[in-house]
Amino acid sequence: MRTGDEALLTDFYQLTMLQAYFDEGLHGRAVFELFVRSLPPERGFLLLAGIEQALDYLENLRFGADELAWLHDSGRFPPDFVDRLAGFRFTGDVHAMREGSVFFANEPVLRVEAPIAEAQLVESRLINLVHYATLVASKAARCRLAAPGRLLVDFGLRRAHGAEAGLLAARAAWLAGFDGSATVLAGQRYGIPVYGTMAHSYIEAHAREADAFARFAASQPDNLTLLIDTYDTEEGARRVVELAPELARHGTRIRALRLDSGDLLDHARRVRRILDDGGLPDVHLFASGNLDEGRIAALLAADAPIDGFGVGTSLTTSADVPCIDAVYKLQAYDGRPRRKRSEGKATWPGAKQVWRLGGSAGDLVALHDEAPPTDAVPLLQPVMRAGRRLAPAEPLAALRAHAAEELARLPAALRTLDRTDSTELWPVRISPALQALAAELDREAH
């Protein structure tokens, strides 16, 4: 999305509520918080991403001439309301967790304080940005935990659910520990290392597989990875061994061979033996083809001689967990705490802070003005005031380092791929004061 194209990228009811707030003169200051109600069974934790895009959206939000004209021509809104939107800007304050932070259910990761119309309008896009990036970052983190020390590359653009999704997935995956992406724009925009090999079509375009290898080597002498499973994987490896001495005479070194189909464990063992026997022990093996963290972990548990993995569809679609219950709820209005009491969807009222306790003692969710626990770290930090960022965007490399530190701090049981109930391993407690406030509001309601 281009900056300035996002004001109408929202749910229609956000605009109808915006008009109602204007008509009613309801301009009090509201507190909304974005959080996840519960973790799916397949996730023992989540890794936060998408905050940078959320702040960029808030800082640049405005209705352009084309959008105003469309709203006017739609006949759904009175002209005076549409005219007021011409000057609409987000003027609120924002607190957020740092991208790359590990978090759990019922912990606010983003807090918006603004006039209620402003805070309401941004709901849909904020959830959209933070939800998707967090899904992919959490999936990528599991891949990294499954393959410590191995090369991991995002191959997911072609099956991502849209162009923006593919680009944001590349960013989220690199933040979570991937080594690079095949998406070229991710390199240009975010400075992410870009990786690429070759396609089966290139091999098929030549009459002989050996000719395809030789021609590609001549074109890419400094970064040569050959795809060897177009016809017969082991035979392809033997052709590489035959070609290697001639390439070496011209100063070309084969960096890696890519396996993309079949029984990857069996093929990797056979190809590794062919390369070693052929005097090419330094040529790496790179595998792709419907991989996820489970398949990667199984391959490495079986001592597969694979040095790197390309992960595509399962990453950019977060195939096993394609959505999480991320919500954005009103917690206070006009100086008074608010609490939703819907069955199964009740919220904790008031503006809150999340405190990370020492060691693996877990987290504490408390009212934002409660005294801090001893030796605890506040996770929500001020990042925007009066609609403007308080600091430039943090370098992505720093967020990536933060994510690595966060994953390393997790208890060993949470760093496995097993289904894990994090409530025992990393408890999230609700402060007594917050519980008392919720009970008080419930009594008032009755």
Automatic annotation (TrEMBL):
<comment type="similarity">
    <text>Belongs to the NAPRTase family.</text>
</comment>
<dbReference type="InterPro" id="IPR006405">
    <property type="entry name" value="Nic_PRibTrfase_pncB"/>
</dbReference>
<keyword id="KW-0662">Pyridine nucleotide biosynthesis</keyword>
<dbReference type="GO" id="GO:0016757">
    <property type="term" value="F:glycosyltransferase activity"/>
</dbReference>
<comment type="pathway">
    <text>Cofactor biosynthesis; NAD(+) biosynthesis; nicotinate D-ribonucleotide from nicotinate: step 1/1.</text>
</comment>
<dbReference type="InterPro" id="IPR040727">
    <property type="entry name" value="NAPRTase_N"/>
</dbReference>
<dbReference type="Pfam" id="PF17767">
    <property type="entry name" value="NAPRTase_N"/>
</dbReference>
<dbReference type="InterPro" id="IPR041525">
    <property type="entry name" value="N/Namide_PRibTrfase"/>
</dbReference>
<feature type="domain" description="Nicotinate/nicotinamide phosphoribosyltransferase">
    <location>
        <begin position="152"/>
        <end position="320"/>
    </location>
</feature>
<feature type="domain" description="Nicotinate phosphoribosyltransferase N-terminal">
    <location>
        <begin position="8"/>
        <end position="130"/>
    </location>
</feature>
<dbReference type="InterPro" id="IPR036068">
    <property type="entry name" value="Nicotinate_pribotase-like_C"/>
</dbReference>
<dbReference type="GO" id="GO:0004516">
    <property type="term" value="F:nicotinate phosphoribosyltransferase activity"/>
</dbReference>
<comment type="function">
    <text>Catalyzes the first step in the biosynthesis of NAD from nicotinic acid, the ATP-dependent synthesis of beta-nicotinate D-ribonucleotide from nicotinate and 5-phospho-D-ribose 1-phosphate.</text>
</comment>
<dbReference type="InterPro" id="IPR007229">
    <property type="entry name" value="Nic_PRibTrfase-Fam"/>
</dbReference>
<dbReference type="GO" id="GO:0005829">
    <property type="term" value="C:cytosol"/>
</dbReference>
<protein>
    <recommendedName>
        <fullName>Nicotinate phosphoribosyltransferase</fullName>
        <ecNumber>6.3.4.21</ecNumber>
    </recommendedName>
</protein>
<keyword id="KW-0808">Transferase</keyword>
<feature type="domain" description="Nicotinate phosphoribosyltransferase C-terminal">
    <location>
        <begin position="373"/>
        <end position="437"/>
    </location>
</feature>
<keyword id="KW-0597">Phosphoprotein</keyword>
<dbReference type="InterPro" id="IPR041619">
    <property type="entry name" value="NAPRTase_C"/>
</dbReference>
<keyword id="KW-0436">Ligase</keyword>
<keyword id="KW-0328">Glycosyltransferase</keyword>
<dbReference type="Pfam" id="PF17956">
    <property type="entry name" value="NAPRTase_C"/>
</dbReference>
<dbReference type="InterPro" id="IPR013785">
    <property type="entry name" value="Aldolase_TIM"/>
</dbReference>
<dbReference type="Pfam" id="PF04095">
    <property type="entry name" value="NAPRTase"/>
</dbReference>
<dbReference type="GO" id="GO:0034355">
    <property type="term" value="P:NAD+ biosynthetic process via the salvage pathway"/>
</dbReference>
